[in-house]
Known about the structure:
It is built from six helices and no strands. The protein is mainly alpha-helical. The chain folds into two domains: 1-30, no CATH class; 32-155, no CATH class. Helix 4 (65-91) runs antiparallel to helix 5. The termini are far apart.
Amino acid sequence: MDGWKASIRKNRPEESVDNMWKKVTELYRKYEEIVNYLIAGVLTTVVSLAVYYACVLTFLDPDDAWELQAANVISWILAVAFAYGINRSFVFKSKSENRLAEAVRFVGSRVTTLLMDMAVMYGFVTLAGGNDKIGKLLSQVVVMAGNYLLSKLFVFQKTKD
């Protein structure tokens, strides 16, 4: 009986939770930038989708190719404005003093992924006849990966501008 009681005392649930929390904290510190980018990316995607859906459910017709793209561009503009702020401060923790150059690089990289987004939407919805809401979700996966790579490699560089 003493061995059983000693075993319970050694493996208390509080200690397991503490150990698990320590491991989660270690993993977060190791992959902080990627985890923060995923959080920021999800929030930016929510902004993009909310604006897109608001447009197509109120005043733009997604069955019209031009209005579909207009909704896409409107959602992109608002999402990019949000993304620059959150990526600069929360993800990459930029200390660049030349914010204008950084913002221009950021917008340029986002124009690249906007074109990718538009191509996915055009191909999936206009050419293939797929559902525009599903197409928008699929395009966001492509866009999020592209945005991270471009931000990491070209926008928020650790070197001085």
